[in-house]
């Protein structure tokens, strides 16, 4: 019997990961992205219940963060655009919100951009000033990689 209970693209969730989650252990990027995929699917089934939104994979920031710490980052030039390639002018103009889960030192936070009024909100279950500096960095990286998708500068 396979331990795999869900697959979608780069996302694979194993039963063993769910067992760890149920035991209050570390929350994996696959858990967050699976929830994001379910949220997207549900919003497509019942669009009147949801604000139109874009979900950025949690893998986007974790890969950016890890390779930015690496001395050889510039030599690797890791392509993270595949995690945000669906964010186009059309998808941005159709969306009201951009949901960006962020993991930093095993702590999860959520960055939510209101694309219509150009305001960013940061949700943190452990509000500490040490988590706040990552906000402009995440927004900067997203904007730099898909700048042509936005009518205005989202780094506000």
UniProtKB/TrEMBL annotation:
Q: Which UniProt keywords are listed?
A: Membrane, Transmembrane, Transmembrane helix
Q: Which residues cross the membrane?
A: 58-76
Looking up Gene3D superfamilies in the UniProt record yields: Adenoviral Proteinase, Chain A
Organism superkingdom: Eukaryota
Name of this chain's protein: Ubiquitin-like protease family profile domain-containing protein
């Amino acid at each position: 019997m396979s331990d795999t209970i869900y697959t979608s693209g780069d996302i694979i969730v194993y039963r063993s990961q769910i067992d760890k989650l149920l035991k209050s252990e570390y929350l994996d990027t696959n858990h967050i992205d699976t929830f994001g995929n379910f949220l997207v699917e549900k919003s497509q089934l019942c669009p009147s219940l949801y604000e139109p939104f874009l979900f950025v994979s949690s893998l986007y920031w974790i890969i950016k963060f890890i390779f930015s710490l690496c001395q050889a980052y510039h030599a690797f030039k890791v392509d993270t655009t595949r995690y945000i390639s669906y964010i186009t002018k059309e998808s941005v103009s159709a969306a009201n919100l951009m949901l960006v889960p962020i993991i930093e030192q095993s702590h999860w936070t959520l960055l939510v951009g209101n694309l219509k009024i150009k305001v960013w909100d940061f949700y943190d279950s452990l509000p500490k000033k040490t988590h706040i500096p990552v906000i402009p960095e995440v927004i900067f990286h997203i904007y730099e990689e898909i700048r042509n998708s936005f009518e205005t500068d989202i780094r506000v």
